[in-house]
Design brief:
- It is a single chain.
- The protein has 208 residues and is mainly alpha-helical.
- It has one domain: Glycolipid transfer protein (Glycolipid transfer protein, GLTP, Orthogonal Bundle), CATH 1.10.3520.10.
- The chain contains eight helices and no strands.
- Helix 2 crosses helix 4 and helix 4 crosses helix 5.
- It is globular.
- The two termini are 34 Å apart.
């Protein structure tokens, strides 16, 4: 992608933070949970119909935060939290992390499809197809028949590209929608790098 037109991060890293880099090969729990809360803010931009998804992600974050608070020193990284839980033959953190990661994988795939479509030069306004494709490639394999049907209905309420852009851009100024949209795609593209690296690490070590 070319250099951005607007020299600022419209995605708002103060609100939606990139996922943290590894520290000594592990993921800092506090930073990971902060970044995960940013995904909740992304889901909020999808509107009221996606409240069940928002609640599900928030509940898994809450569970992990509560486990961390019980023993911050031993749970300082996600890796240590899961290793400690396995040694105690417990499953709460593992289950919460598993479902949180499945949600993160869905939004990573959805946003990747949106950005890739932008790269093609003729960005699609209707994002319903991307919402369904991302679901079929991620959450579909983990849901019951009923959940699959409900999510297909939910996808019909996916906001359009322009609506999603206006909801995610936090600092609108005199620039045009096209400029804002282009900058947002660049910001999300960078964001997806950190999210993808986090997903790969957790799936490989913590959930492997």
């Amino acid at each position: 992608m070319e250099e951005p037109v607007i020299p600022k991060n419209l995605f708002g890293e103060a609100v939606i933070q990139p996922f943290p880099d590894l520290t000594d090969g592990e993921i800092d729990t506090t930073l990971f949970l902060q970044s995960s809360r940013g995904v909740v803010r992304i889901v909020e931009a999808f509107g009221q119909p996606f409240m069940p998804v928002q609640r599900d992600i928030s509940q898994n974050i809450k569970t992990l935060q509560e486990i961390f608070n019980q023993n911050p020193r031993d749970n300082i990284t996600i890796d240590k939290m899961i290793s400690r839980e396995r040694s105690l033959n417990e499953h709460s953190a593992g289950q919460a992390l598993l479902w949180l990661m499945r949600g993160l994988q869905y939004f990573h795939r959805f946003l990747t499809l949106v950005v890739n479509d932008f790269r093609e030069g003729y960005p699609t306004e209707d994002l319903i197809g991307f919402a369904r494709q991302a679901y079929d490639e991620t959450l579909f394999y983990h849901h019951s028949w009923l959940a699959r049907q409900l999510f297909q209905v939910l996808c019909r309420f996916c906001p359009t590209r322009s609506v999603l852009t206006l909801k995610l851009v936090i600092d609108r100024d005199q620039h045009t929608y096209a400029d804002h949209h282009r900058q947002l795609m660049l910001d999300i593209d960078r964001y997806l790098i950190s999210l993808g690296a986090t997903i790969d690490h957790i799936n490989g070590f913590c959930l492997g």
